[in-house]
Amino acid sequence: MIRVLVVATAAVSRAGLSGALSLDPTLKVVGTAADLDTLGEEVDRWQPDIILLDLGDSPQTSVWDELNRLQAARSPEHIPIALYDWEGDFQAAIQAGVRGILPDTSTELELGAAIAAIARGWLVLPPSAIELFELREKVTTEPVAILTPREIEVLVQIGLGLGNKAIAQNLHISDHTVKFHISSIFQKLNVSTRTEAVTAGIRMGLVLL
């Protein structure tokens, strides 16, 4: 069970995110917080595996300062952080321990899959973040799998041994879209078969960045 701490300034956002994550049986929302002022105390109290953070209108500079202090206090065991509904300085976010940036268009399934993947060491970013800088060179010298939330869902379905038609039905997308996602997964993981993709996903997903 992956323990999640949800932090959001708006009560409706805290309730919505908590409710969406509660639909995934592998996740457990252990606590919520309304701001970053007591984040360190809340982390000590709840011992989460990952923090889901909705910044709202918070000044980014103060957010990065707070997150850097949090990570420094727990070095080298950094806590992975996911940002929800956010656009800004991706490099600063990564340096502050952010390992996922999730758009507000994410479905409940995509949100749960992304949080689970980030908690296990995956890096989940939107295409706009990937296009802004060469992530492999700036973040780490180790191999990194950069998959979208939907690609993670498709990879999970492949791991269950499902064919394209079944995956399309389960995710409510077309066969053509499934093929497109699989092709993208193969390219990003540098593999050529489904078995290799699942093996690479498991191997890379178990290694924290």
Automatic annotation (TrEMBL):
Keywords: DNA-binding, Phosphoprotein
Pfam families (alphabetical): GerE
Family matches, as InterPro entries: CheY-like_superfamily (IPR011006), Sig_transdc_resp-reg_C-effctor (IPR016032), Sig_transdc_resp-reg_receiver (IPR001789), Tscrpt_reg_LuxR_C (IPR000792), WalR-like (IPR039420)
GO molecular function: DNA binding
Domain Response regulatory: 3-119
CDD domains in UniProt: LuxR_C_like (cd06170)
Biological process per Gene Ontology, one example term: phosphorelay signal transduction system
Residues recorded as bearing 4-aspartylphosphate in the entry: D54
Annotated transmembrane regions: none
Residue span, HTH luxR-type domain: 140-205
Descriptive protein name: Response regulator containing a CheY-like receiver domain and an HTH DNA-binding domain
Organism from which the protein derives: Chamaesiphon minutus (strain ATCC 27169 / PCC 6605)
Taxonomic classification: Bacteria, Bacillati, Cyanobacteriota, Cyanophyceae, Gomontiellales
